[in-house]
Amino acid sequence: MKPAAIFAVAACALFFVVVSLHDHHQLPDRIASHFDVTGTVNGWMDKTAFTTSMLSVGLGIPAIFVSIIYLMRFLPTRYLNLPSDRWREPAYFRKACDYVLTITLWYAAAFLLWQTAFTHQIVAANLATPPRLDNQYAFLLTIPILVLTLGWLVAFMVRFLRTC
């Protein structure tokens, strides 16, 4: 596990929390929290509930994902299903677990930055009168998370298709 990846996750989580709390103070008491595909509001909620739910989801998803990957190292090696059986050997199993955890930490850091942009976009939509989500920007925002996820999978596969 790389200390830089841990630092990146911590820094991105702190950035997400700071931006979310800053944005919270700009919101009206009742905010548009859900939008249809045209950017029109179709759901409302209290700003405190919105900020709480965004913080919970934004921090919770990466925390759960990283925790599951971390706990993988405590499972019997037969549960590690990789293209090469060699990764299940005791000498390589820890190395495999460390690699998966490291790329997952980087994924979590990037996800936190994406979540910051996503949440900030909803806040920006609520500052407009009437509230309206910029659906072009929202669509463009989905591209990085898809590319990020694909990149995580490719990094995973490239590493484990090779022999130890």
UniProtKB/TrEMBL annotation:
Keywords: Kinase, Membrane, Serine/threonine-protein kinase, Transferase, Transmembrane, Transmembrane helix
Residue spans crossing the bilayer: 54-75, 96-117, 137-161
Occurrences of domain DUF1648 (ranges): 18-51
GO molecular function, one term: protein serine/threonine kinase activity
Superkingdom field: Bacteria
Pfam families: DUF1648
Protein name in UniProt: Serine/threonine protein kinase
Species name: Terrimicrobium sacchariphilum
Highest classification ranks of the organism: Bacteria, Pseudomonadati, Verrucomicrobiota, Terrimicrobiia, Terrimicrobiales
